[in-house]
Amino acid sequence: MKKIVFTLSFLFFLVSYSQKKYPKDYFINPLEIPIVLSGTFGELRSNHFHSGLDIKTQGKQGLKVLAVADGYVSRIKVQQYGYGKAIYITHSNGYTSVYGHLKKFSDSIENYVKGIQYKKKDYQTGNLFPKKNKFKVKKGQVIAFSGDTGGSGGPHLHFEIRDTKTEHVINPMHFGITTPDTKSPTINALHVYPLSYNSRINKQQNSFKVPLKNIGKGIYKADRISASGTIGFGVNAFDRLNRTSNKNGIYSLEMLVNGKRYYYHDVTTFSFAESKYLNLLIDYKYYKKYRSRVQRTYKTEANKLSIYKDLLNNGKINIKEGLNYIVEIIAKDFNGNKSTVKIPIIGKETNVIFKKQKDTTEYKIVAKNFQRFTKDDVTIAFPKNTFYEDVYLEFEVKKGIANIHKPTIPLDRKYTLTFNVSKYTEAQKEQMYIANVDYPKYPRYQNTRKRDSIFYTTTKTLGNYTLKTDKIKPKIRFLYFKDKQWISGLKTLKVKISDIGSGIKNWRATLDGKWALMEFNHKKGILTYDFSDKKLVGSKHIFKIVVSDNVGNTTERSITFFKK
Fold first, then answer.
1. 204 DSSP 8-state letter
2. Confidence category of residue 15, pLDDT binned at 50, 70, 90
3. What pLDDT score does 498 carry?
4. DSSP assignment letter at 259
5. Contact 276, 48 (CB under 8 A)
6. Which of 213, 451, 491, 537 makes a 20 to 30 Å CA pair with 412?
């Protein structure tokens, strides 16, 4: 009974959102310059959909960021990665606007945040929830300045609109926050897939690219294919907006079979919890191999995305002997510009027989069960439903490297990887860590937990892992000033830090014996202290900094400078 109620509620959510009309004149542009986008809502990103608009800031930082409507600051967050410095404003119409990758906040908010940072002695604040009447804002009021903080790839403003009650993100373009776009999407590639053991496509049992011809004006034609059994399609497509050359995501994807809709999805809204199922929307194996995302026009069984509408047979096409089919795939952007590709298909059985491949590994994963396997000194443990389907896993240990299949299968949750380290001395274990070595020249530190004779980590990525040793201390270099130098003209102190091996874990700085707030630009490896934070007493000052890596190697440096 509970399951039925949940299903009906979920269906109601989908219908209500798909039919909802959003207020188009309520919100204004969050910047004082015309909107030019580098990223659109719902774009396919690494393991998730893009949850907002990335608005260009002319390659600069420090542009005024405006409240898009009246409301109050309901949440503030400062983190090293993710959105960096971010503000959330709740509005009276049931929506919340989000502004990310900020350089700094407006004065009152900046002072509030820095007070908490100094109290906690930590740059990262976690989620802050000011009282409702603490920071009330008016439409057009300056709330912050644009930047490049967090996981940003360059200066821009990340902007979102969320449903305040559910936290589901909604495409801001539905609210009138748009940019000119008269260009049709580009269909870059077409793929076809056999979806059952008896399926055949051009006498093959493998997926492959179908040659495309661009006729012009958004029209593409594909070579005729012969097929039998159940098949599916996928496309690699992107969209370009006016005034920019960025390859952005498309808004909707549709497939017709002999004029009848079999498949449709669009990126109007979604929840953060479902975003991970992007890996089931795309051909994940192809992406991991070629770094190109192909969106499938059929839905797999484990896919729980809510973006689909009007699916017929989940978008899978049953091809029958002697019948002709015209499959039309339509990619649209938000403004309705479209591109189409038509694929003629003839139903034709083949006498070619393929031998069924034998399952050759001894490590069978039953997705619904918990499973643990051990080989040599390595143990892998998979919680139930880590995998989306049953699979035979490749698992071997050679020369200390654990090969856990290939990283071409998406996982729903993390598994545990454990190394037995009882053969090492305590001194050796201190400097060891678990690393991913899919790219041997660039080992990647994994969050390594140590307990007696075992090291373990949790990860959602299959691949190659081993134990590494790091004996090298981090490096510290003071920028733009020297020991015993007058620096009256400097507004900030900058320190370059770096580490070869396990990577930097933390740092601590003091100025005249008191904790100093250092903002870390991890992309450049530069820590910055702002002299406006605290008033200096006297002219002689001592700055100390301690930097540690992930295995505990530590470097400490101090410097004396003069400044009034």
1. B
2. very low
3. 98
4. T
5. yes
6. 451
The pLDDT value recorded for residue 373 is: 98
Distance, in Å, from the CA atom of 174 to the CA atom of 163, rounded to the nearest integer, reads 13
> Is 508 in contact with 515 (CB distance < 8 Å)?
yes
- The residue among 146, 141, 102 whose CA lies nearest residue 125 is 102
Report the distance separating Cα 1 and Cα 145, nearest Å: 51
Collapsing DSSP to helix, strand or coil, 19 comes out as helix
Q: With contact defined as beta carbons under 8 Å apart, do 32 and 65 qualify?
A: no
| Residue indicated by tokens 């690219």 | 209
Sheet arrangement for strand 519-521: 475-479, 492-498, 526-530, 519-521
Phi, psi angles (nearest 5°) of residue 138: -110, 155
Q: Please name the residues in contact with 515: beta carbons below 8 A apart, sequence gap of 6 or more.
A: 118, 121, 508, 509
pLDDT score, position 355: 58
The model's pLDDT over 134-144, given as tens digits with 9 standing for 90+, comes to 999 999 999 99
Dist. CA 73–CA 298, nearest whole Å: 41
- pLDDT tens track for 490-514: 999 999 999 999 999 999 999 999 9
Which carries the bigger pLDDT value, residue 163 or residue 25? 163
443 CB-near residues (< 8 Å, 6+ apart):
435, 436, 437, 466, 468
For residue 161, which of 45, 71, 64, 62 has the smallest C-alpha distance? 71
Cα diameter, the chain:
92
| pLDDT for 9 beyond 60 | no
Residues belonging to the chain:
564
Question: Which value, to the nearest 10 degrees, does the dihedral of the CA atoms of residues 149, 66, 42, 40 take?
Answer: -90
Residue 65's CB: how many other CB atoms inside 10 A? Answer: 27
Q: What is the mean pLDDT of residues 459-478?
A: 98
Q: Rounded distance, CA 297 to CA 299, Å?
A: 7
Torsion sign over Cα 150, 52, 188, 246: negative
Confidence of residue 361 (pLDDT cuts 50, 70, 90): confident
Q: Decide: residue 497, CB within 10 A, 0-12 exposed, 13-18 middle, 19+ buried.
A: buried
